Every structure is written in structure tokens, then in C-alpha cells.
Amino acid sequence: MGQRYFIITGTTKGIGKQLAELLLEKGDHVYGIARGTSALEEAYERYQHVQFDLADIHSIDDLVSSLLEQIPLQEVEFIGLINNAAILEPLKPIDQCIAEEISQQLEISLAAPMIMTSSFIHYTNHLNARRKIVNVSSGSGSYPAPSMASYCTSKAGLNMFTQCVAMEQSGQPNPVEVIAFDPGMVDTELQAVARGKSAEEFALSEVFGQVYEAGQLRSPQDVAKQLIKRMEEISDPSKVLHTMEG
């Protein structure tokens, strides 16, 4: 039986960290990408960590190429890319956002997953193994919200990008499965940032706080388990998959 390998962005915390741990516990190999360091490398022999800032979009192709060169591709049964990393800021009306903030949001949350996807497909097209890409989306990609224009736009773009790539792959000899996954409202650092804002700065901060106080946030571990389930099954790429489905 062949091995399973995964490249996951944002593995130092939240959903990304839980995903890496759950897959490693299954005996899979994980390459984690994040700006910070990770203790997973010391805890798991099959984990390799790469410190990298996804805002450096012009170096992503070299990054993906170098990672795939380290994988014994002849032994691979399943290889996956999980585009999980994203940032929430800027959380303020668009007329108060500066160009640098908008640019960074779009680079990390949208451009980076697009380039990761492009490179991953390009460098694995010769494989017969099953290939799958999961783009972690958000309800914000479907529902507009004040003071979240940049984030909502990034996630909406990611949803459309996923559907476009899925259409491209549908006629290929060994198509890459591509899906967008909405984890719902999860107890992560992004949520903490949102509810920590003042009402003057971020109009929805009180709503985020109420959801947290009511215990309605899902745990990163529960979401990671659901994502793995979705990743392993054959999914419909024409719609965004949600944690509460199935």
C-alpha cells in the first residue's frame, strides 16, 4: 500500500495544526508551511516544517517544487494540498484601509492559494496517484459584512477559483480533485482578533463576542476531523462544502 503525503499551510495553530496532528496520527506524512516555528517537527518523525511567509508570492513556485522533490513520488498513493492559511485583517471600513493592508490580505488569503494550486498541479501532473486540493473557505465568501470587505472578497474569490480549476480538471486523464471547504465559526485566533476589536473599529465585534459567549464556536479539532472526512471522500466540486453537511 502506498503512502499519503500532505502539504498544509498555516500549521502552527488552529485548524492547520489540528489537521497536521490528526494526519500524522494516521501515519501520513505532512509538510507544514507557516511563518512561525512548530513543535510538531520534534514530536513527529513524519512531519517537516518550512518557515515561509506566503506574502512572498513570487517564491511560492520554488517552494512547492522543492517540497515535491523531497517526496518519493513513486511511493505515493495519495497526495494532497490543503490551502488553510489566511489572515483576517484589515477589519475596518474600506475607506480606512491602506493599500498595504489590502494587498497583504489578497496576497496571503487569495493569491498564495492560487499559486500553490497552480504549482502543485503542474509539478504532479506526471503522477498516477490520487491528487486532491482543499481550499479552506469561509461563510464570509458568500455573505457580505461591513468592515470585512477585503477578507470577504478573498474568500469569495477562493470559492470561484476552486470551481474554475475543478472545471479545468474535469477533462484531464488523471484529474486533480479540487474542493472549497467552509469550516463554519471556529474557536481560532482569527475569531479572538475579531471579537477583541472595539465596536467603533469593527461593527460586528459584538456579534462575534456573543457567538463565543454562547459556546457556538466549533473546536479546531472537530473541524479538522470533518475536513479530513471530506478530503478522503469523492466530493462535488461545484459547491462549497460545509462542516454541517453530511
What integer is the average pLDDT?
Answer: 88
In one word, what is the shape?
A: globular
The topology string of helices and strands comes to EHEHEHEHEHEHHHE
User: Could you tell me how far the N terminus lies from the C terminus, measured between alpha carbons in angstroms?
Assistant: 28 Å
Strand order of the largest sheet: 3-2-1-4-5-6-7
Helix segment tally: 8
Beta strand %: 15-25%
Would you identify the regions where 5 or more consecutive residues have pLDDT less than 50? none
Helix content: 40-55%
Largest sheet, in brief, is: 7 strands, parallel
What class, by secondary structure content?
Answer: alpha/beta
Radius of gyration: 18 Å
What is the number of E strands?
7
Provide structural commentary:
The chain is of the alpha/beta class and 246 residues long. The chain has eight helices and seven strands. Helix 1 (14-25) links the parallel strand 1 and strand 2. The longest helix has 26 residues, at 99-124. It is globular and about 55 Å long. The mean pLDDT is 88.
